[in-house]
Amino acid sequence: MPAAPPLPAAWLAAPRIGPNLRLGLRTTVASVLPLLAAALLHEPALIWMALGGLYVNMADTGGAYRTRATAMACASLLGAGALGGGIGLATWPWLCVPAMFAVGLGCGLLSLYGNAGALIGLVTAWCFLIGINVAGPDPAKALSFSLLYLAGGAWATLLAVAIWPLRPYRPVRLASAELLGAIAEFFSQACPGSGGSPAAEDQLFQGKLRVRAALATARATLADTRSGRLGDSPADGAFTRLIESADALFVTSAAMGSLLAEIPQPEVPQLRLRLDALNRHGVVALRQLGQALLGRAGLPPCQGLVIEARRIAAAIEASAAPGIALQQVQLSQLQWITTLAELGEAIPAAALNRRMSSPGRPGGALRAAVAQGWKTLGANLTLDSSVFRHGLRFGVASAAAVATYTLFALPIGYWITLTVSVILRPSAGESLRRTSQRVLGTVLGGILAIVLATLFPHPLVIVLLLVPLTLVMMAMLPVNYGLFVFFLTPWIVLYKDIAQPGDWSLALWRIANTLIGALLALAAIHLILPRWEREQLPARLAESLRCQARFVSEVLDRVLEGPPSSAGPPSTPAALRLAMGNAQVSIQRYLSEKASHRPLALPLMAFLLHSQRLIDALLVLGCGGRPAAPSLRPLGDQMQTTLTVLASALERGEPAGPLLDLHRPEPTDDQLQLQVERLIEPIVGLRNAAEACSEALAPLATDQVRDPGASQAGGPA
Q1: Burial 41-59 (b: 16+ CB within 10 A, else e)
Q2: CA gap 161, 469 in Å, rounded
Q3: 90 touches 133 (CB < 8 A)
Q4: DSSP secondary structure string, 276-327?
Q5: Where are the alpha helices (DSSP H) in 409-532?
Q6: Nearest to 477 by CA among 122, 239, 235, 131
């Protein structure tokens, strides 16, 4: 195995959290080199190539190499076409107003296709906007500037995916390694190998969220990589097996943490020490597997851990009076260690990273993708769709901005439309948050631009100043939008100064036009087909409750049927994971929309917390090794009824009314009684949280409409 690279190299190779230095360096090369050539060769037209390099890099969403290449190629082609079309229309200023509406509507609808579609739409709108503001437009300029922009986009795409043919599965390995690290961190908190107490409940909850996010990223990256390749590959099956095994490992980790907490400390001290030691070695092995996946370490001896787990099982069986809790912990631990060994077996195949050799025809996949895209678009051409409403809002506000600066002949008035385009989002809460970030970042960045443009008027010096600005600006893009805008403002001012050096008054006009654009965006958010998250929140919460009710039924059926002792804990249904994720996103959006929503933060957070506690309790209850408990059936029916009634009350915006107290069955032993209490407590907590939410959302939850665009957009762009 190759040695692990030094820390800086690892940071550059896989920027997952924090500044994306690699993106900053790549954008610097893609955009500053053409500017340097423009300054040295006295060819101002080359700045359009630099613009292509900058904008196309903004459309790089990461993930699989083919996905990145496709997104960047679309941004290059659509941007070049929009730029040329805008230059062609620039001689008729008032015709540009309805044209801007049409472009804004179309680019807004691209949000249907996820974050990549939203970014492609954004840079396409920017290109059209810049095109209709080109001085002295003519057909020759339209063609040459479009070709230069296209060349800059192609150069940026080449830089981004230059290693794509050599390591197509590298993004999948990076995402999978991060997933294993997140599970190891969570397991060390839930099942501390030192024998201490588990981490606090809020820490465990945050750890679960991180693992679920890493699972979603790994699955999406594998899907993107696989969908862009022809034929079959051994790596596809290996990575699929690895990710699904990691999911099972996480489910077992959550169940084992709850079971370990139920074992009294004075009981079986020697066996407890062996259990804790095996957990500690398991975490070390899991982290080593993540390093092995990246080629930085060898495989750990997982089979030795399996042997030790079986020895512990034999010792528990031979003990005088093994408790049910201890048996359940041992079964879960054996399941965890066995799954860990399966992960180790999948690593070598996954690390082969073989090329695809089977021939195939891409036409069928392309036709299917286009057909699905048209189907998605057609389903969202209705006012019931939040994305379609966003497209109309974007188009109207953009056209109003063009009309404003045309009517009043404002210098660099396109900055008004640019501000509108970057503020407006399908989510009102995110749009409002971006407004403050955009205004503050532009004002502070404008001041910096005035200072730099005054002190350094020479074109070559300006190009050199753009190097650190580009590096820091793009590195901050995934971290904080306000910081990105702070560096973007002097970048564009200096970029324009290459042709007009020393004109620092442009920065003042940018600040003024940003304020005008922010006012137009705020007006659009509140006046043009507004749809607030408070209209969607009750339905999202209700769906999560119904999915939890179905999971209650599945687990109780499993318990009453008596699964094999080696079955391990049940897995969380995909529909439940999706519903919980949608509820969490909806809550975040709702709380960000208005300050008046914040008093509801406590019951909404309690809703999420008790939902997770119920799921954890069901996972523990579904473990094997316990006699069937028929007396649980009435309790299960009451739990399902309670959750269903609460869901209906949330959707209607009405109080749930009096609910029967949950029946506590006669326990077969103290352990079962404790686990029954673990089911009842989160149900009571959910009931209290849902009733508080129903009361607060009652005036707003009527006349709910289904949003066909919500499942397509996949979250804020």
Answers
A1: eeeeebbbbbbbbbbbbbb
A2: 23
A3: yes
A4: HHHHHHHHHHHHHHHHHHTTSSPPP-HHHHHHHHHHHHHHHHHSSS--HHHH
A5: 414-423, 428-455, 459-476, 481-497, 505-527
A6: 122
Distance between CA atoms of residues 467 and 487, nearest Å: 12
pLDDT single digits (tens) 296-324: 888 888 888 888 888 887 887 776 555 66
DSSP state of 715: S
Q: In the chain, what percentage of residues exceed pLDDT 70?
A: 79
Residue type, 208: K
- Which region among 230-234, 344-348, 496-500, 535-539 has the lowest average model confidence (pLDDT)? 230-234
Tokens 């915006």 label which residue?
653
- For residue 7, pLDDT beyond 70: no
Place of tokens 């034999």: 314
Structure tokens at 436: 């403050």
What are the respective helix, strand and coil percentages of the chain, to the nearest 5?
75, 0, 25
Q: How far apart are CA 432 and CA 478, in angstroms?
A: 18
pLDDT at residue 706 in the model:
43
Does the global pTM surpass 0.85? no
Pair 156, 72: CB distance under 8 Å: yes
How far is the C-alpha of 609 from the C-alpha of 373, rounded, in Å?
A: 37
Spell out the residues 6+ positions from residue 9 whose beta carbon is closer than 8 angstroms to its own. Answer: none
Q: Decide if pLDDT at 335 tops 70.
A: yes
Picking from 175, 173, 242, the residue whose alpha carbon sits closest to that of residue 213 is 175
pLDDT of residue 665: 58
Query: In terms of pLDDT, which residue wins out, 28 or 205?
Result: 28
Please report, for residues 202, 546, 572, 667, 673, the alpha-carbon distance to residue 678 in angstroms, rounded to integers and kept in the order given. Answer: 17, 19, 17, 13, 9
Structure tokens, 491 = 């970048």
Give yes or no for a contact between 276 and 195, defined as CB atoms under 8 angstroms apart. yes
As a whole number of angstroms, the distance between CA 111 and CA 108 comes to 6
